[in-house]
Amino acid sequence: MTNGASLVQDVLEIYKSAVYELDTEKFLSIYAEDVHIYDCWGNWESKGISLWKESVIEWFNGVNEDGYLLKVDLNDITIQENTNIAFVHCAVTFAAFKGNTEDKHRQMTNRFTFGLKKVNDSWLITHEHSSLPIDMQTGKGIFNLK
């Protein structure tokens, strides 16, 4: 699957636009077949594109059913790369808007780490880890950016 991501930054832009468009195929195009995901939600991990696809479809269907547009912002991006391997960490903010309005319904920020490899001149995510800090008093996740 070719995603046209000749730069690591391209992968991040495809991620953002695919989430906004709720485009499962476009979103999955930036992931390797053998991707290993540690996500904040649902399963402890997803190994392989098939399991990840199930999670993405469920996520996008839920956003669509609720009638939201999901905008993604990436902050504090650090990219380290060599010829074939790259490492990215950043804060990813997901903001849900009702339809095409500026009526923000909710927002949360996760910490993300991506491991990427170059395949046929395109960067693919081989490992993704999202996390939230935990409030030690309540045991609940902290969803706000810093």
From TrEMBL:
Organism of this sequence: Paenisporosarcina quisquiliarum
InterPro entries found in the cross-reference section: NTF2-like_dom_sf, SnoaL-like
Lineage: Bacteria, Bacillati, Bacillota, Bacilli, Bacillales
Membrane-spanning ranges: none
Name used for this protein in its record: Nuclear transport factor 2 family protein
Residue span, SnoaL-like domain: 8-134
